Amino acid sequence: MTLRRQILLLPLLTAVIAIVLNLSGMVLVGQRTLDAAYSKERAVAADALRLAIDARTTEALSMAQIIAGMPALREAVARRDDKTIETMLAGSIQEMMAQTGMTQLHFHVPPGTSLIRVHQLDKRGDDLTKTRPMVVRANAAQVPERGLERGRTGVGARGVAPISWQGAHVGTVEVGFDMDANFLSAMAADTGNEFEFYAVPPAGEAGKIERKADTTGEAPMLAPGDFDQVLQSDGIDLLRNFDGVPHVGRAVAVKDFSGVPIGIYVVASPDHLAADMLAAQTRLSAIAVVLSLVLASGVAWAGGRHIAGCVQRQAVTTRAIAEGRTDVEIIGTERKDELGDMARALVVFRTNLEENARMQAALQAEEQAKRRAEESARAEAERAEAERRRAEVEALEHERQRVEAERVEAARRAEETRARLSEQQLVVAALSKALESLAAGDLHCVIETPLPGEYDQLRAHFNSAIRQLGDALVQIDLSATRVDAEAGKLSQASTQLAHSTERNAAALEETAAALNQLTSSVSSAADGASQAREIAAQARQNAESGVGVVAEAVAAMAEIEASSQSISRITHVIEEIAFQTNLLALNAGVEAARAGEAGRGFAVVASEVRALAQRASDAVREISQLIETSTLQVQGGVKMVGRTGAALDQIASSVRDIFERMGEIAASAEEQARGIVEINGAVNQLDQTTQHIANMTDMSAASGRALASEGSDLRQTVERFHLPETAGMHRSAA
Questions:
Q1: What are phi and psi of 444, to 5 degrees?
Q2: The Methyl-accepting transducer domain covers which part of the protein (predicted)?
Q3: How many angstroms separate the Cα of 708 from the Cα of each of 464, 480, 511, 524, 649?
Q4: Which fold has domain 40-273?
Q5: How far apart are CA 284 and CA 23, in angstroms?
Q6: Percentage of the chain surpassing pLDDT 90?
Q7: Residue whose C-alpha is closest to residue 430's, from 612, 631, 601
Q8: For helices 676-718 and 600-667, what crossing angle results, to 10°?
Q9: Which of 130, 385, 567, 650 gives the lowest tally of CB atoms within 10 Å of its CB?
Q10: For position 585, what pLDDT does the model report?
Q11: Is the distance from CB of 112 to CB of 123 less than 8 angstroms?
Q12: Closest Cα partner for 540 from 487, 580, 504?
């Protein structure tokens, strides 16, 4: 083959080799760049999905912790009061769900029992220990939990926060978001990507993996054979076309809070940039190939004048261009021969190298732009995380300030409680000492020391009641003394009357004996009649005196009865004071119990005061019973004295009759002889009357003695009390 032909073929072969090498390099670099872009897009899309899921679980836990910090809800959960929770939250749950996207708000009590579903009020009280392990673990460990979990309505993002009340764990509150088609649609709207979700059945349950939600509206991106590969690896990469737009995707498995796979998410990003780059590269390569072939052919067929001398220079230039140097000067481009064609071909090759370098620079600039965008997104995420942490710190600071305010308020209330306990202890001690003296019968037990605050009015009432009781007992003592004295007089008068009646009986016997002598001794009869008249006058005087004594005894008995009623009223007042003291001691015991360990000693004192008040109440009750018994006995004595007065009235009437009869006897002694029979009958009747008077006199004497005994018993009852000095003076005077 001639050199000319070789020279003619050389540019063509060189152009073809250059085109092949250029195309190979461009294809290799483009493929690697495309693979890197695909991998980056897949990683960015998968990371965005994971961040969205993590953000959703974090939001659920944050809302649950905010709700768990509400004092009213904590107290309601501690009391298992689902009605109060319903009243507080049921009216606003729909607005909360609309504003936050929350789909469930659920309260539980340990170990895992539903207290109330605010989002589903008709269902509560069911056992969740076998279906909700996150709730069981949060109650057992008493720590917050977040993550994905299966529920009766599907997979959801859950946040469970523990609830405590007064230092004790009482339950948990759960906030949930559904990870359904709405979640995928929102992600698709925010990112422009396409999503699918496949639910994995629980271990041990029969079932197959099925697509539950998607945004493509087309056939599933995963085949049944892909599921095991996704679950056993970090994921698989996909390439799909949707509406003529290429998409690069990745399928990743998601796990619940305990690390068990519960689903598969597929995210696919549109590949506009890579497709445009590939199309542009293809067009440029085709143009370069066509131009290279045309130029090489033109140069080869244009001739090769002076080609031989320039071959060496062209070879050097070709090597320089092959080394990638684009600053080499190509000589001979103006020639019309083969060397000129070769030079122009080298110019084209250099142009291709420059274009390739430009494309490489463009790819690097695009990569740097993506890197800057990623760094900007990462910085934005860090700023959002810092803002969230700052909000949490502010919330913790507000909570600390609230706790500090509650601690100061509790200290103030404790100080007020201690002050009230001190005052009540002083009051209870004073009342305890006074009531103890009163229970012992000492009526000098007034409280001299003023009591603090409003309790001094209680001291005044107590002292007034003690003084009134002392005055009443003094009056009773005086009345008893008078009753005793009057009863003695009554007994003495009755004894004298009995003696007089005996003498009257003896005189009547003498009169009966002398009746046989009346006929012969009128003068003796007149003398006897005069004596009988004097005796009758004395008997009438004694009877009238007895009637006066009986009237005084009746009046004294009435005074005793009135005094007994006064004592009953006073004892009732004392019993009310004892009841109020008992109530005060009970309140003091309650305050001491609230004070805790500091009030334990005072609680014992309050208990003793209650017991002492109860004993005082029992003593007052016994006094009331004794006074009631004495009143009944006095009323019986009044009745007996009344009957004695009636008997004495009859005696006085009989004595007046005797006196008149004896006057008639003295005035008509001359008629005694004729009326001997009548006198005999009258004497017999007088004898019967005298016997009757004697019996009534004995009864009057017995009544007087009984009245004296009752008066003595009443005085002994009153002497149980240590009365004021005036009572002793009155008793001494009596």
A1: -95, 20
A2: 479-708
A3: 33, 9, 38, 45, 22
A4: Beta-Lactamase (3.30.450)
A5: 10
A6: 8
A7: 612
A8: 160
A9: 130
A10: 63
A11: no
A12: 504
What is the C-alpha separation between 348 and 359, in angstroms, rounded?
Answer: 16
| Interior angle at CA 720, CA 716 and CA 723, nearest 5 | 105
Pick from 27, 726, 43: which is nearest to 377 by CA?
Answer: 43
Cα angle 384, 389, 393; round to 5? 145
The residues near 415 (Cβ < 8 Å, ≥ 6 apart) are none
Residue 90 three-state SS: coil
* Residue 734 CB neighbours (<10 A): 13
Q: What is the mean pLDDT of residues 454-458?
A: 75
Q: Look-up: residue for tokens 């992600």?
A: 187
Q: Where are the domains of the chain?
A: 3-23+275-401, 40-273, 440-733
Residues 520-559 as b or e (16 or more Cβ within 10 Å = b): eeeeebbebbeebbebbebbbebbbbbbebbebbbebbeb
φ/ψ (deg, to 5) at 337: -100, -170
- DSSP code string of 604-616: HHHHHHHHHHHHH
pLDDT digits (tens, 9 = 90+) for 366-403: 888 888 888 888 888 888 888 888 888 888 788 788 87
User: CA 514 to CA 508: how far, in whole Å?
Assistant: 9
> What pTM was estimated for this model as a whole?
0.38
The Cα-based distances of 336 to 298, 304, 305, 609 in angstroms read 9, 8, 8, 134
- The mean pLDDT value of the chain amounts to 75
| CA–CA dist 346, 327 (Å, integer) | 12
